[in-house]
Amino acid sequence: MSDDVLVSARGLQVHFPVRGSGLLRRTTGAVRAVDGVDLDIRRGETLGLVGESGCGKSTLGNALLRLVEPTGGSVTFDGTDVTGLSARGLRDLRRRAGMVFQDPFASLDPRRTVAQTVAEPLEVHGLRSGKRERAARVGELLELVGLDPAVAGRYPHEFSGGQRQRVGIARALAGEPDFLVCDEAIASLDVSVQAQVLNLLRRLQRRLGLTYLFISHDLSAVRYLSDRIAVMYLGRVVEVGPAAAVGGDPQMPYTQALLSAVPLAKPAEERARERIVLTGDVPSPAAVPSGCRFRTRCPYVFEPCDRVDPALQPAGAAGQVAACHLHGVVGTPVAQEQDAAAPSRRP
Amino acid sequence: MTTPADPGPGRTVPSTQPAPQTVTDRPPGAGSDTAAGTLRPARPRWRETLGLLARNPTALIAALVVLGMIVVALLDEQLAPEGPNEIDVGARLQPPSPDHPFGTDDLGRDVFSRVILGAAVSLRVGLIAVSISLVVGTLIGLLAGFYGKWVDDVLMRLMDMLFAFPAVLLAISIVAILGPGLTNTTIAIGIVYIPIFARVTRSSVLGVREEVYVRAARSVGSSDVRLLARHVLPNAAPPIIVQTSVSLAFAVLSEAALSFLGLGTQPPDPSWGLMLSEGRGYIELAWWIAVFPGLAIFLLVLSFNLLGDGLRDVLDPRQRTAMSGGRQ
């Protein structure tokens, strides 16, 4: 991909052990929340991450910042391997990479004032010495996110959802980060407020040169904000590419179904178009199907799908990559060497 | 995990196409809910708490009684009309009278004066013992609840071992090991109540540690110590505060029980429990010797309990949000 990659995941895995109920609580299986993700996020871009509930989007976002410990693979942040960081290195990572959380009612400590919340990163990283400088910086940050600095002494329960989310963004920006993970950052806001927060994020990106991983199940919001889009299904990234390509000409059957679920605002077209409705439920991430993980619901399933786990490969004319056997070996029986190449998917 | 490509629970996908850029610069408070709209100074939480407490008459009276007892204990020498150990053989076993409001005991000592001086003993034992169990128990509960896994297993099994013994029996054993006396009694009572605080704290911490704001604080680089001190402990505190007031009552009772058994306060020093014990031999002859210290214990314990109940109500976040108009 591009040379200027800020965050990069290679074969990233987060498996949560499933323990038996016996006395020894032995591990009897694993929920594969993130299961071998390869992803590059370029400096200054917004990468939208979409997928249905439970597909591992949030876990992936958390794992990139090591808020959840990866169980395999690697994460590189600006050239440094994040998985082997010391306590000190980890603290520095958390200054340079922040997170905006979904629920602004839950993500602010109810017993701390806005000023205390926003100042926390400053204190942790020793960024401003002295009470006065810190207070001034808190005021700057609040202004940056469109809040009146005079509200600094108030408690979260005195604010509306949108205002709280702005406080959350101000906290995430306090350490002057390069990278923000926005984990469903607008999902619990009113629709009118969603647009405001989206525009705020966009304006902040231009002004501060931020890189975003924008996690959302809201495809319209993702298309509005993102330069590129990654689609996740059952713990794996199954399609990545420029927003226009993934949004306009999806190559992976799952992405096609996902996009066809978005209603159009034009009634005539909406009535005329054909929806792809998937049958069945998402398999449990504790029992991932063999071969292609989408095969149990894919309308195009054919010969290699249940045996070979497809790798991301160039698909379509617009420059995206997709993990699907329809691209590469269309119609031909599976060659033996592809079988052998399947376990180690990356060169 | 419902239909494929579920855009979200009960949510239609909003059209977020080009919205005017200006909306981001709107003044704060515009179009939001009431509280944040107008600028008023933030009301500190303790004032809110006091305000709520004032609306709970039982708790308020209980708080005043406790406060009164503390004042009495502090002013003991000034308030007591006679020395607690002043023996007046000519005035033995006298019933309550203007001279001796609570009567006199078998040695002619003024029961009223001894009850006043006993307040200091009871309260001191209660406060110090509960401080011991509060500090140690809360620390153990914090660590066990926050770190979980083997830390939790080891610490809580130790607490279970302490918990397995009946409280008074354990206190007696500890005093028997340390030797009788007021200091040792206080320490023994403190140890006995450690597991209660550890359990209450742990269960409260188990809920708080999963809160998003704890993860958010971690995401900006806060250390564990900082997380515990700034976020987990303050939010886990309400049940601990309530437990403190309830335990104060139990500690006072335990001191009385141990003194009654001859392990706590040593004669001739006055302590409510000891006076009760000494007075029981004369209960048919001179009921006032035992009844007045008994009443004092009853009043203090009842007040601590009612105060604890009141604090529990006041510190319940649902009550608080109901008072301030709810979330939105």
Top keywords for this entry?
A: 347 residues, alpha/beta, Rossmann fold, 22% strand, globular, disordered C terminus, B: 328 residues, mainly alpha, MetI-like fold, 65% helix, 0% strand
What does this structure look like?
The complex is a heterodimer of chains A (347) and B (328). With 347 residues, chain A is α/β, with parallel strands linked by helices. Chain A has a domain of 235 residues: P-loop containing nucleotide triphosphate hydrolases (Rossmann fold). Helices cover 31% and strands 22% of the residues of chain A. Chain A is built from 11 helices and 12 strands. The longest helix of chain A has 18 residues. Chain A is globular. Chain B is mostly helical and 328 residues long. Chain B has a single domain, classed as MetI-like fold. Chain B has 14 helices and no strands. In chain B, helix 10 crosses helix 11. Chain B is elongated, with a radius of gyration of 27 Å. The N terminus and C terminus of chain B are likely disordered. At the A-B interface, helix 2, helix 3, helix 5, helix 6 and helix 7 of A face helix 10 and helix 11 of B.
Indicate the topology.
The complex is a heterodimer of chains A (347) and B (328).
Chain A: E1 5-19, E2 27-42, E3 46-50, H1 57-64, E4 72-77, E5 80-81, H2 87-96, E6 97-100, H3 114-125, H4 131-144, H5 161-173, E7 179-183, H6 191-208, E8 211-215, H7 219-225, E9 228-233, E10 236-242, H8 243-248, H9 253-260, H10 267-272, E11 313-315, E12 320-322, H11 336-341
Parallel strand pairs in A: 3-8, 3-9, 6-7, 7-8
Antiparallel strand pairs in A: 1-2, 1-4, 4-5, 9-10, 10-12, 11-12
Helix pairs in contact in A: 3-4, 3-5, 4-5, 5-6
Chain B: H1 34-37, H2 45-54, H3 57-74, H4 76-79, H5 111-147, H6 149-163, H7 167-178, H8 182-192, H9 194-208, H10 212-219, H11 224-260, H12 272-279, H13 288-315, H14 317-323
Helix pairs in contact in B: 3-5, 3-13, 5-6, 5-8, 5-9, 5-11, 5-13, 6-9, 7-8, 8-11, 9-11, 10-11, 11-12, 11-13, 12-13
